[in-house]
Each structure stands twice: as C-alpha cells, then as structure tokens.
## 1
Amino acid sequence: MTAVSDAATVASRLRAIEGVGRDRRRGGYSRHVFTTAERELREWFAERAAACGLDVEPDGNGNVWAWWHPCPRGDAPAVVTGSHLDSVPGGGAFDGPLGVISALCAVERLRASGFRPARPLAVVAFAEEEGGRFGVPCLGSRLLTGAIEPGSALRLTDGDGDTLADVAARAGLRPERMGPDADLLARIGVFVELHVEQGRGLVDLDSPVALGTSIDPHGRWRLSITGRGDHAGSAALADRRDPMVPAAHAVVAARQAARAASHDGARATVGRLEPSPGGSNAIASRVDVWLDARSADGNVVRQVVAEVCAAAGRSAEQEGCELEVFAESWSEATRFDPLLRARMRGILGDLPELATGAGHDAGVLAAHVPAGMLYVRNPTGISHAPAEHAEPEDCESGVEALTRVLSELAGSTGADGADGTGGNGSW
Ligand code: HGY
Ligand code: MN
Ligand code: MN
C-alpha cells in the first residue's frame, strides 16, 4: 500500500472532529442522532466522502451512504463498510467514528493505489446506533432491514417528548417513507464493520486487530414505578409510597441476578434512573429505571430480567407503589458469517477472534447479508466512557487490515477482472 501522509491518518481525522459534541458536564461526547453535533458529523462525513470521489446518498431512514461509482459491474452486490457517528451520553471518541473514519481512510488508500473495484463499494454511517436519543439501539439499520415496525419507531420519543417522526421531519426526512428499504438492502453483498474493541481481549492477546465472531443476545427494559409525591420533611415514613425504594431494589437485584448467572456471562446494568419530579427535598412520584441485560444465552437474559422485576415488584408492593415493565429493545444473538470470517482470515492471517457483548449495526445486517467485524485494540478496554482509547499505530493497523479486506472483496485492480468473490459466489 502507498505511504500515507499524516493528512489521511485515522488520528488526523479523529482530531478533525474532536471538538464536535463535547459534553462539558459529563465529560466525553454526547452526539445524539439529529442533534447539532451529530448533524455536524454527518456533514463532515459527506464532505470527506465527496472529497475522495464517492457519491453521497442519504437514505430515507437517516443513514448516510457514500458509493464508489462507476465500476465494471455496477449491478453486482456491493461491498459495504462503515459504522455510526452517534454516541452514548458522555461517550468516548472512538465508538462509531473509528469505523466510519477507518472506512474513509481505506477508500482513500485504495484510490491512491490505483485500485479499481470490480463491484460497487460503499461507506455507510448508520443513524442512532446507540439508541441514545430514542432508546432503541441500531435504529437506522433496524428501519432499513425491517427489524422494527416503522409506526412504533416513529412514535418513539426523546427526553423532551419529541417523536422520531417530528425530529426526522425537521431533519429533512419523510417520516411516511421511513421503514424497510428492500431495494437498498438488495444492493448490499457483504458488510464489514471496523470498531474499537469494547473490552480487553486484544490487550491480553497483544494484537492490534481481531476478527469478530459473535454478539451476545441483549435487550433493554424500562421499569416504571409509580408512588406518591410528598414532602421529604413532613411525610411520615408509615405514610410514604416512595418509588425510589423499589428502584433501589431493582439496581441491587440487577447485580445479584447477574452474579448468580455469571457462568453464562450474564451482565445486568442500570445506567439510567430518572425520578420525577426530581427535587432533593421531595419524595418522587415516579421513577423510571432502565435495565440493560445481556448474556451468551438469551434464556439467561430473560431469567435475569424476571428476577430483577420480581425483586422490584415485591418492594413496590411493600411500599404501596405500582410497577410497570416495558420491553424497549431486543437483539438476538449474532454469529458472523463463517465463510466471510474464513475469507477475512485468509486475507489477514490468523488474527485473534473475539466474541462480544456489545451490539453493532453489523449484528442487525448479519440477519440479511454476510457480515463481519474487525476490532482495534483498546488499551483501557473501557467504552461508553471518556477513557475509551485506541493508539494511533493500532488505528493504522486497523485501516491496513480493512483496506486489504475491501481490496480482496471488492475485486480486481482492473487487470484480471476477477470479481472479488471467493470464486464460488460466496464471500
Ligand atoms: O449497547 C451496545 O452494545 C452498543 O454500543 N450500542
Ligand atoms: Mn458502536
Ligand atoms: Mn456503543
């Protein structure tokens, strides 16, 4: 591959956006879908993609695609790579943007090397992967693939009570057209996502890059506990119906239930808890508790959730409160395409292979097209927090790997006209 000027390194591209969406209160970044910060990133992505000769085409669901045209077989299923630009509240700099930026850098290097794809090649930035604004992760890829019913998606609301329909319309989309896009989905032949590792697998294996094997089943539930608001100083204990007490039991029960099922890799987390009205000298009238539960076994996830809800229910009954539970999202287990994984191993050599508990758009697409992932070492192992990190040289190893994979999958240098598949039409 050609030598790369600093201008096209991942580190330089990350620096170019490092000021966008900084969260002064929480630290890290808050770049939620269709907010000013995320819109700024979309515009930056579109500019950079156009600058490297790609045709930028936003789809009807808020995802942004950048296509490498023309190519000898324009109608062949495309090789697609990319990730997302949105973040969790107070998130790190790499989760999402590393995959999008690495894809752009890989395309720039392929073009600079004189490579010509035998089939379309695209870079995509999916919308609302974190579910940080509307509560459902991978919303853009779920809408594209029909993994979520459009009507229920459009009725999702953000913290201000604005619906996705209203926010999307303000962003220039046509809510009535949002939903499955079979034509676009049919254009995708294979999807490869590069992502910062969310864990310490690579640090312990001392390798800068790994292949993804699977994503654990995982979901989100909202426990809504209703009591009676009152004065913190005058309400007698015997008269209280304080929803914060069952909420506290839910938090502790999450850890206990996960620990009891830790042999199945169970994890249960309450990262978000919203008392209303939220006065420090008032008993809350209602508390919403969001439970995130995951495990290698979907039945174990459901078991953990049942235990947490039972504990919160018992406490709510004792406290004279009402508990309602709402399932907000569910992601089945993903096993990445073994043929594609073998192909990527053939291209990159025997890299470590990692399972993950973190969800990705590649997990949603995997139900429709061969999908694979590349992980870049994160020396802290931490993610969804400002301490998330990847060293510049490891990011370059990631781009190098992605560039080689794209070059192989997308076909020839134009000399031999090979179509890039493994010869048997598979990947
Ligand atoms: O929550 C997840 O696993 C992903 O980061 N959206
Ligand atoms: Mn991510
Ligand atoms: Mn994430």
## 2
Amino acid sequence: MDCIFCKIANGEVPGEFLYRDAKVFAVKDINPQAPIHYLVMPIEHIPSVADLAPERLPIVAELMRVANHLAEKEGISKRGYRLVINCRREGGQAVPHLHMHLLGGRALLGKLG
Ligand code: AMP
Ligand code: ZN
C-alpha cells in the first residue's frame, strides 16, 4: 500500500521510533510546529477517525496513553501540551493514516482553526 506511515511502520522507509509496541508507534514530525511535535499512530492502516468502527475506538485511547507517556518522558506534562487528530480534507488531514499529533514545549495559545 502506498502509505508513508505504513512504510515507516514496516521499515520500508527508515524512521526513528520514539515508542513502539504491538499496536502503536510514535515518530517525530518532519515539519515540527513546536519544540516537541510527535506523531502517534496505530500500526494498522486506518485512514481516519471517521473510518473507525465503534469496536475499534479503543485504539484512540491507546494513542492518548502513548502521547501522555511521551509528554511525561519529555518533561512537558506539567506545563501542558496539545493533542490533535485531523480528520479528512476539511479537517486538514494530509496523510490518510490515522495519527495523533503531540505538540508542546512552547505556549500554544492560538485558537483552533
Ligand atoms: P495531518 O495534516 O494531520 O495529516 O498531519 C500529517 C503530518 O505528517 C504533518 O505534520 C507532516 O509534517 C507529517 N509528515 C509527513 N510525512 C512525514 C514523514 N515521512 N515522517 C514524519 N512526519 C511526516
Ligand atoms: Zn497507512
């Protein structure tokens, strides 16, 4: 499948894994918008949150668990951070493989959108 995040997950494209388990992995965003900008995503190719069947929703909790863990590890947990999931075209999703952005390390005071 021609998906950049699947290719990173399966090693076809090299990536530095910040976290990896049987279901979820995390990498640095190549175009960081904050001092900490990580992408946390399922290994399985799920195009977007809108494509999640109700019984697969627990994967989103897994993404949040890993994002919280990485925020703690990077020392930004107390100061705060932002978790974002863009969905499809008008939601600003550029890569159609479900992923959660973890942003932090500076004040993110902008309004949404
Ligand atoms: P979204 O707009 O929510 O789909 O976010 C896609 C994100 O993926 C953007 O912030 C990109 O900078 C990032 N990105 C695209 N290609 C790569 C890559 N090969 N490795 C890491 N991050 C990437
Ligand atoms: Zn994919």
## 3
Amino acid sequence: MRGLLTLRDLSTDKIMELIKYAMKLKKGFRISYPDKKIATIFFENSTRTHYSFQCALMNLGVKVIDCNTHTSSVAKGETLYDTVRTFEALGVDGVVIRHSQDEYFKELENIQIPIFNGGDGKSNHPTQSLLDLMTIYEEYGRFEGLKCCIVGDILHSRVAHTNIEVMRRLGMEVYISGPEEYNDNSAEWIPLDEACKTMDVVMLLRVQFERHQEKMQMTVEEYHNKYGMTVERMKSMKQNAIIMHPAPINRGVEIADEVAECEKSRIYKQMTNGVYVRMAVISDALDGNL
Ligand code: CP
C-alpha cells in the first residue's frame, strides 16, 4: 500500500530523511503540485491533524477535498472501503484518514492511491510521531542516548504506542509514568517526580475519556496533583529539558495552566512542525517515494 500508514514500515534512515526534508521546508524550500487533489476524511474529532494536513496541502498547492462524514454517504452506511474507493474513482490522488478502528487500513489493501493515516484507534499516529521527532531533533540535534518519559493514559494512546516503538529504534531510552490503571507495560514505568528530574523530554498525554470503558478512578484534581505537570515539577526538570504534549491539552488536568506555554514547553512548536512534516510526507508520496 502507498502513503504512510504506520512508522513500523519505515527504516530509521527514511524517518531521518523525512525529518530533514520537513526542516528544509520549514526553512523556506518550496515545491508545488497544482494538478493534484487530496481528500481528508475524518471519522473522529480533530483540530491539529485535520487542519495541519489541510494547511500542508495548501502550502503544496494541492487542492483539498474535505469529506464531511456526517453529510456524505458514510451516514447512509457506506463502508470505509467504498468511500475511499469512490474518491479513487473520482480521480483523487490521495486520502488522509482518521478512524477509531485499529488498523482500519487493512480493509483498504486494494486501494492504489496513497493513504495518509491521521490516526487509527489506539495503534498508530505516524505524522504525530514524526512531528514529535522533528521537535526533539531541532532541540538536541540527535536522538541517541536521549531519555524520554511519556506520562498519562498510555493504554489508550496511539501517540504513546507509535512513539515508544520509533524512539527506541532511534536509540532513545523511553519510560512511561502515570496512573497504574493506564500502565500497559509498553515501557519501564518510573515515578513522575523521578522522571521530571532525570529526563530530557517529558511528554504528557491527555486522559482519553472517549476511549474508556470505565470511569477514571480519581477526580481531575487528584489526577493533576499526582500525575500532572505542576509548576513545582516543571521547576525540578533539568535545565535544557523540554515538555511536550500532542494536544489537545486539558489545562489544570495533565498540565498546569502556567506550564502550558512556559519556556520549557514545545507544545505550540510541535503544532507548527506538524505542517512541515505533513508537507514532507505528502510531497514524498506524490513524488512516488512513499
Ligand atoms: N495531536 C492530535 O492528533 O490532535 P488532534 O486530535 O486535534 O488532531
């Protein structure tokens, strides 16, 4: 299949190539595809991924077709395959898809046009990981030996699962922290206060209530005090260490209001980098390389 479905399909050399291409685009390099059309099809809510893909497409001169899944024939029961096959038949050159089903793309093996995964269930969020990696690389100029702790609702997080796998391949030490109920043992668990003092990157996650079967076992205040990035925890971090979060953020839950835009926070830089990473991925695919 063409496009970008999971980072597991990409070698570390290819990942570095895409990050460096995104950095070149951020510096002003321009390439244009005015004859191409790409559809964005979001079955789950999104602000960053949906609209940064659209910004990336506009920056590349690609025409954007935004499929409204509430007013399209999806609402009449059309399958995902038939929806995507329809866009392919209409002459669209690629589709961006977000879907709540893990690995939904396995149903789309007959599709010939590139598919860009904007997130599937709890499994993959490849362009989010690439923008996270770009942000870390801009900060440190390397991955080897860096320590990152991902904090929070690991169990339900496609961001955590994608990042843990790819960060390890790039030579980073990855840990997890947060409530025991969200620990899926996908990495070594360490206490948050220890993580804040020792990590180069502390990556916070939102509690993903929409994917929970049961109610969280504590109040949001308890969560914040035990597992949130408070001002005190931020001050205990190493001088050059950074705070990341894929967002949307819940101020006062996993991150204090005052910390969200503090000097150590790279949260809004991550969003900016998302546009360039998505430009790089789309351009590479339209050039026939992905
Ligand atoms: N980080 C991220 O995926 O945000 P959205 O859900 O707003 O796209």
## 4
Amino acid sequence: MIDRISRVLPDLRDDELPVFIRFIMGRIFPDWSPEKLGIGPNLLYEGVAYVAGTRKEDVVERINRTGDVGRAVEELLGKKEQTSFFAEDLALLDVYRDLTSIAKTGGTRSQREKLRVVRRLFSNARPLEGRYLARIMLEDLRIGVGEGNVREAIARAFSVDPYLVEHAFQAKNDLGEVALLAKAGEERLREVRIAPFHPVKMMLAQQGSIASAIAENGEMAAEYKYDGSRFQFHKEGGTCRMYSRRLEEVTDALPDIVEMLQRATDHDVILDGEVIAIRGDRPLPFQNVLRRFRRKHDVASLREEIRMVPNVFDILYLDGGTLIGLPLSERRARLQEVVTDHIAPQVVSDDPGEIGKMYEDALAAGHEGLMLKVPGSPYTPGVRGKNWIKVKPEVDTLDLAVIGAEWGEGKRAHVFGSFLLACQDEGVLIPLSKVATGFSDEQLQEMHALLADHVVSQSGKEVQFEPFLVVEAGYSEIQKSPNYAGGFALRFPRFVRIRDDKDIAEIETLESIRERYFRQPGSGS
Ligand code: AMP
C-alpha cells in the first residue's frame, strides 16, 4: 500500500497533492480546519436516488443488503450507466471544488443547494468513482490507509527522512500540507515551526500507578488530573483563539476563559490546559463542561450558573519560538515566567508518600486523580506515551464507538433504547457489546439528538450509524464470546457518559481488551 501510494505522489501537481493525500485518508479538509462538509447520509441518499432514477428507500434498502454505502452507490450507478451517458469527467480538483462549495453553503436554502451539487457529482461519476465519492463524503473511505502509511509513502515518494515528515506533521497537523513541503525538499520540512492559530495535536497519557512511575523514572512532576475539557489557547498580539481536544475552534463558546487567559499574559503563546466547571468550590462533573462546549448559543445565561476555570499545565510556543522539544521542567519555567494566573500547581518529587498525599488531596477536592509527568520529557503531540501517566481510582471503563442501535419500546419508542458499541483493530471497527442500562431519559434524548442524522441503514428495529460518536462504558467483566467478531463481549455493560471530546480513532483497541481479559482474576492466564 505504501509503495503504491508513494508511486502516485510525485506525478501530482502542487494543487492536487494535498487534496489527494486527504482523500485517500477519507478526509476532505485538514484536521485542524473548522470546515465541515455538512452532508448527512440522508442528503447523500437523496442525491444518489435522484441520479439513479430510484427512490431513497431503494437506496437505503440496497445499503442494508450490501452493508456498505459505497458498494450500494456503485451498484446503483452501474444500473444507470446503461441508460445514460456521462456529462463530463470527474477530475480530482473539480471534486474538491464542489465539496468545498457544499461546505461553504449555509443559510435557509442550503439543503437544496447542497443537494444540487451532490446530484451533479454523482451524475458525472462512473460506478467505481461513485463508490469512493460516497465514502469520502461520509469521511469513511474503508481502504485501510492510515496516517502511518501515508507518512511513510510521503517520505518514500520524495526521498526525505520519515522522522522529518513526522516532525512536520506534529506541527502542521495536515499531511496534505506536509506532502507539499516534502516535495519542496528536506530543508523545508526541517523549517516547520508551530504557529499560532494552527492547533497542535494534544499529548496524551497512559494509565499507571504512583509506585511504578517513580520506580521507573525517579522524580516525577505531579499535577491534579482535572475532570473537564482539554483546551489549547492560542494568542498572537490581541488575537486569541481556543481549540478543543479534537482541535475544533471553540473560542465563541468560551469567551470568559479566553478573556481570563488573555489577561494572564502579554506574550504570544500556545498554552495547553484543562477547563473545569465549578459551583461553589467543588468541581462539577465533566458533562457540564461539555454541554458548554457544545452549546454555542445561550452562553450568557450559562455563564452565571456555573463558573468556568482554566488550568494551564503546558506551553508549546512562546513569542515566535517552538518549545515542544524542551524538557517539561524548562517549559514549566517559561510558563511561570510569562503567564501570571491559572497555572495548575505542580509538585516535583520522588517520594511516593508525598505524591500519595497529593493524590488523596486531589480526590478529596473532587478531582479525578493525578497526572505524573517525566520532568525531562519533550512535548510529543498526539502521542499517548509513557511520559505522562494518569493515576485514578480503579474504575474499569472503556471508550467505545457507537455503531448501531435498536429503537426503544413503550414510552421510549421515539428514541433509541439500546446501542451497539465497538472497539477497533487497526482502524477497523469490531462490535463488542450492546448497552441498554445506565441512561437517564435525558441522556437517551441526547443520544438520539446526536445520532438521528447519522443513520446509514435500518432493518426492522435496528439501525446502523455512520461511526463518529464515542461513549464511555463500564462493565463487570470481559468474557470470551462467539457472538461477536472480536471474540470478546462485556458482562453487565452500562453507559457512563458521552465522550464527544474523543475522536473515533481514540477508542479502545481489541488488543487492549484482550490484555484486560487476561489480567482479570480467573481468566486462566
Ligand atoms: P484520559 O482522557 O482519561 O485519557 O486522560 C487524559 C486527559 O486528562 C487529558 O487529555 C486532559 O484532558 C486531562 N487532564 C486533566 N488534568 C491534566 C493535567 N494536569 N495534565 C494533562 N492532562 C490533564
């Protein structure tokens, strides 16, 4: 796969290269871009139905049969081919231009206008093109090309050091742009710097314990683990922006946090932190913060109810310079020099007793636990490595993708009542469990509101979703199961919360489920 991709890249023009790179990863816009296509499956089916001269129900029926939107579209366009002929060839950039125009279409007439463009695209598509076009529109290409493959292919195509490709990607967060730089030569890749208003992937943490972290690393920098929402704050001159953990811009949803951080520094900075909600002096559960992120309107009234507080724990950029290569201890020193307020307290110690005490304090104050960080470690964007260790009370939960549901019954007949959850194996979703307990009525309403527009197929009472939503689920035990493709199932699964700060790529892997299974007492290992 890497080889094939790398052979195509050198022949692409500069304007085609980034588009091609994103398309083969099933994306249209750079990850950091706020732009969204804004086409739900329904609009797509309607467009395809029109072009194929059939009804939307037939499209849905065919998707149910093939289990794949792409193949269904291909079949439908194949039938059409005998009766009509193409108007024009679809060129890469034309498709991109059309998709961009769809993304930019807003206002009251937007659905009709979008539909018009979707129809035009499919009426010009050959059946095989239709297969991939449909999947690109739903941002689920299913060709198994991941970021790692594409990074390798770029390095190979332009004979540059893969390490430099990776390095540039960490700062740019868009392999399309990185490919262009690689094409221009290693020097250009080397020059890449983090810059304001270009969000950087967030560094992530592994689970661990105080004793083993200190045994392995000696001194650790300990901070409270706040149960809120991750943010990245960018400031240059008088302009400030905030990004969520998924690198979506959330400036307008958090005006008070932006103001507080702006007041705390005169410098140009990129700061990493966690915003928490507080009522009185107790932190509120995570869901309250998320609701705020989501609710872009009505911000003023919410502002009074709940106080939002930023806790800054890292600095990635300062006055034109990248800091991510520096050890944490030096970044921390810079942070304390240039930011006057809202810095998360930190204790550096190799004494398990002292850190244990801090852990108790954190829990007593209503926080989630501790983060232990290796003081000599650089900031590695997007990496869930051993340099950041999270320590929290042992509650076994899994972050899983919602891939299907069944309609509820009785008074819950207008919402989904149970959900099918999946883990992943190298990007392929593997069903793991159904979950029907743990939901309040409001949460079921919320799940329905989030998912209703993402139904890709339906049979009887069951629906399948375009996978995008992550939920956290608890369980009592992992069991071997012949009923699920991954070979495992959850015993007593229960819904804990929606994790809409998490991306589908971050869900639990089959490998880690297997490991958890073998760690269980009595699993025979
Ligand atoms: P988890 O989401 O359970 O994988 O835990 C990692 C998350 O903890 C990060 O993405 C942050 O949102 C959050 N967090 C809370 N406090 C801190 C902290 N002091 N340092 C780093 N991350 C933190």
